[in-house]
Amino acid sequence: MSLLGRTLVLLLALMPLGCELFVERSAAGSEASPKLEFQSGLADGRGAKRPRWHAPSSGESPQRHGGSVVPRRSQSLDAESRSNSGQLTPELEAAHRRIFESPEACQAELVRGGRMPRREGVARIGTLNVRWFPDGVPGGTPRPSMATDVEWLSCVLAWLNLDALALQEIKISSHGRDALALLTQRLDAQTGGRHRAELDDCPLNPGQHVGWLVDTTRVSAQHFEVHGSINPKGDACTGQLRPGLGVDLTFPGGLDAHFVSLHLKSGATENDLTLRKRSLESFAGIARRVAERRSDGDVVFLGDFNTMGCEDCLPVVGSSAEAAELDRTLLAAEPSTRRVPAEPPCTHYYQRRPGLLDHFVATRSMLELPAGLRSQSFGVCRLNACESRSGASPAASRHLSDHCPLVLELPDQKRD
Questions:
Q1: How is the chain split among helix, strand and coil, in percent rounded to 5?
Q2: CB 279 within 8 A of CB 263
Q3: C-alpha pair distances (Å), 261 with each of 242, 244, 372
Q4: What digits encode the pLDDT tens for the residues 141-199?
């Protein structure tokens, strides 16, 4: 072969390598997208109540946290490694294991720049029952063996790279308020964001509250509204049960909807099941009221639905049977809603056994909810692949929560 021919062959062989190197260099060298900041505040819309307690962010500039700032995206992980099927790369699975192994391992991962990668044009919303935050148990006395490790929790949430998080089981004692303020401050320091916490306005102390934790540098949070009809006792704060707390979230790319954090009645008796069904009946009315107030009726209900079944019913209702009945109830309502499947299919462990208690439910008319979309369960649920556990309870179950973070990604665009 002539010299010219050998040169052409060599160039053709090197072209794929050259293209690959160019793509990697472009991804690593590109500048981060500028942050979009929105004015956030409470709206005085019809039926809205001001939440009882508000924890603003520290107010520091995202650029003034010194060495404590952690990059928002990991540069060492493939941004396309996570899909609707819930598959993660081996590298990301290993990072996930370290995050939930211990507070020290989690912090070391953040220092290395580790973070759940994000594709451009995607909004990421999560929900987490934090189990009697921050004490870990009911009543007014913390139990050190079960108390929330706030530093570890903030590290986990920073790694999950969320825009907004629905909260359940938050206490409003002075200790609880201090812990929630610390959580927002640590998240600001670890992410460079500006987090805002809002809780429902029920005067239950030390009862459980639902709420929101929103990074206001990523998403606009307006019109916080207490939905009393979700409490099946007939009033927002009656009977030690909870209302929902809704908020209009608007993302930079145009996605907007009304998101409702909720926590339905726990328990496996027939009365518990009846009360949960009564709460579900309120969804359609909430969606209709939202549609009257907004340009569309897009509503997402998320949180702890407590779909644990009924042990004293005849016949006995298993948790999967209650979830199936939940789907039928949502479909029959007007407007109808649908549940987003979770992968892996559990969000909670009790006595070493997994359960699917937490869900995302959205109005069927919401065009931004793609067909086949799945939410993703993390933490102990993912590490155990939703199989029954053996041995001692892991540290994450004791000092984070018996629930696992459940995360949903939606295309950040306006489709209606």
A1: 30, 20, 45
A2: no
A3: 10, 6, 23
A4: 888 999 999 999 999 999 999 999 999 999 999 999 999 999 999 999 999 999 999 99
Give the dihedral sign, CA 133/206/55/165.
positive
Alpha-carbon span 243 to 223, nearest angstrom = 16
Rounded-to-integer distance, Cα 169 and Cα 166, Å: 11
pTM of the model: 0.82
Cα torsion 401, 172, 261, 282: sign? positive
Angle at the Cα of 344 from the Cα atoms of 377 and 136, rounded to 5 degrees: 40
What are the structure tokens assigned to 164, written together? 């907004």
- For 312-366, what is each residue's pLDDT tens digit? 999 999 999 999 999 999 999 999 999 999 999 999 998 889 999 999 999 999 9
Torsion of CA 375, 380, 385, 388, to 10 degrees: -130
Signed CA dihedral, 128, 129, 135, 140: sign only:
positive
pLDDT at 53: 57
At 265, list the tokens.
């009645």
The amino acid sitting at 22 is F
Nearest to 249, CA basis, from 225, 222, 226, 224: 222
Helix-then-strand count for the chain, H and E: 10, 16
Q: For 200-229, write each residue's pLDDT tens digit.
A: 999 977 789 999 999 999 999 999 999 999
Residue with tokens 């969804």: 283
For residue 315, say if its preceding peptide bond is cis, omega within 30 degrees of 0.
yes
The candidate with the shortest Cα–Cα distance to 226, out of 363, 51, 46, is 51
Structure tokens at 219: 């998403």
Distance CA 32, CA 401 (A): 33
Burial of 298 (0-12, 13-18, 19+ CB in 10 A): buried
Spatial distance between the Cα atoms of 55 and 177, rounded to a whole number of angstroms: 8
Going through 233-298 in order, the beta strands assigned E by DSSP cover 244-250, 256-263
Residue with tokens 């299919």: 345
- Region for residue 59 given its phi and psi (left: phi exceeds 0; alpha: psi -120 to 50; beta: otherwise): left
